[in-house]
Specification:
Elements lengths: L2 H19 L2 H10 L24
Length: 57
């Protein structure tokens, strides 16, 4: 991949990330489509034991 292609790809990923982060239903649809979560919002088995920092309140 050339530097130009890499930069274009990086910009496209950033735009897509911004789009998803503004829309909860689009974010969920993406995570379901990629197999990270179920329709109910539960993590799928391969992702259940990942260490995800939680807010301590």
């Amino acid at each position: 991949m050339s530097e130009k292609e890499l930069k274009e790809f990086s910009v496209a990923i950033k735009k897509y990330t911004e789009k998803l982060s503004r829309n909860k239903s689009a974010s969920k649809a993406f995570l379901v489509k990629t197999g990270i979560i179920t329709e109910k919002g539960n993590l799928r088995d391969p992702y259940k034991h990942l260490c995800i920092p939680q807010e301590q309140g």
